[in-house]
Write a structure and sequence with these properties.
Layout: E1 15-25, E2 28-38, H1 41-55, E3 62-71
Antiparallel strand pairs: 1-2, 1-3
Length: 87
Amino acid sequence: MEETFEANTHDDQVKEWMVEFIAMVNGERFHHLSVLYGVDEDDVQHAMLQELRRVYTNTERIDVTVVRMQETSVREETTPFEGRFSA
């Protein structure tokens, strides 16, 4: 899914978040895993609601259960497979 949130603060404060949630729409269960952007959890929840409105346009009620919401971390390894595999 594409970015759905534009922060009103400085870009250096906006973080990337991984959000896993379940949406109940018209009796059907939909499991989502999204990467969203925000300064804090409130911003990320706002971005999630915007995404839900965009995806489920023809429904009045959406029940959401957030399974997991965490800030992503960048882990840089210059040689991620060195020494782990042999031919």
